[in-house]
DNA sequence: TAGGCCATCTGGTCCT
DNA sequence: AGGACCAGATGGCCTA
């Protein structure tokens, strides 16, 4: 197996390492891109070994950048998760981040529903929030979730309500069976580890990403995975 | 040492 | 045609 992909990629890695060592990676990328652009004008069968290699370097560099951007977005997601941050805490894995985010969204959605229910109970459905005309003509698409009387509402910054989510293709979240609303405990309370795989610390009232704590929300399983349209093509 | 996680390469497919 | 996206393969690093 002398021409195995592993050996070929090792060769390319050496080329990249040499290019990176000679200068900045951007410069190496630009050189590779220029050579690849010239080479791409020809038929691939007519391309020389080095031209093919340059094209491969360009594609590899693009893919690296794409994955790097994805990791940056993942870090941004980690930052807003109710989880212990800090140098002494191990970073959440990607799968754990996604599972925790999902549970967190479900929890927030449920809390919002519960809050709306409580407000309607207290005010008997006569709270001004349920009458958009009382909000200075801002014209809500959906009733606001019971903001306190007298407090200014920054409408553009409000998170979408569960009802509005249904109009954006996320209705499955709302369709989830309501788990018991967790108390609003801050993540600073003592974590409880159940000693399962992954070693996720458990915070009181906070969603856990570990597989043991995934609630059976079969009602919205159709939201996951391959059924989601591509972001770049959902406008069609 | 096995298993988990990750980065990277690679070829294929889809989209603009 | 070129780029974005995806999934499989591979190897490295780390931890229990």
TrEMBL record:
Note whether Metal-binding occurs among the keywords: no
Which residues, by range, are in coiled-coil regions? 38-65
- InterPro entries reported for this sequence: bHLH_dom (IPR011598), bHLH_transcription_factors (IPR050359), HLH_DNA-bd_sf (IPR036638), Olig2_bHLH (IPR032658)
| Keywords recorded for this protein, A-Z | Coiled coil, Transcription, Transcription regulation
**Record keyword Coiled coil present:** yes
The chain positions of domain BHLH read: 54-108
Which residues fall in a compositionally biased region of kind Pro residues?
176-189
Which N-terminal stretch is annotated as signal sequence? none
> What's the protein here called?
BHLH domain-containing protein
Organism field? Staurois parvus
At the highest ranks, the source species' classification is: Eukaryota, Metazoa, Chordata, Craniata, Vertebrata
């Amino acid at each position: 197996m002398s021409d195995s992909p592993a050996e070929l990629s090792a060769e390319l890695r050496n080329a990249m390492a040499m290019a990176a060592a000679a200068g900045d990676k951007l410069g190496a990328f630009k050189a590779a891109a220029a050579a690849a652009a010239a080479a791409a004008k020809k038929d691939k069968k007519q391309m020389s070994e080095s031209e093919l290699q340059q094209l491969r370097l360009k594609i590899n560099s693009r893919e690296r950048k794409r994955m790097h951007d994805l990791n940056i977005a993942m870090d941004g997601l980690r930052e807003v998760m109710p989880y212990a941050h800090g140098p002494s805490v191990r970073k959440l894995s990607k799968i754990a981040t996604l599972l925790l985010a999902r549970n967190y969204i479900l929890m927030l959605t449920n809390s919002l529903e519960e809050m709306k229910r409580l407000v309607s109970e207290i005010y008997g459905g006569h709270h001004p929030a349920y009458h958009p005309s009382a909000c200075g003509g801002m014209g809500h698409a959906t009733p606001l979730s019971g903001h306190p009387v007298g407090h200014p509402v920054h409408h553009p910054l409000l998170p979408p309500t569960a009802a509005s989510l249904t109009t954006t293709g996320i209705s499955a979240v709302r369709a989830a069976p309501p788990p018991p609303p967790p108390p609003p405990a801050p993540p600073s309370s003592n974590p409880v580890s159940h000693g399962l795989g992954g070693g996720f610390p458990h915070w009181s009232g906070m969603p856990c990403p570990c597989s043991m704590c995934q609630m059976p929300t079969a009602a919205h399983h159709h939201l996951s995975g391959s059924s989601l349209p591509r972001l770049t093509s959902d406008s069609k």
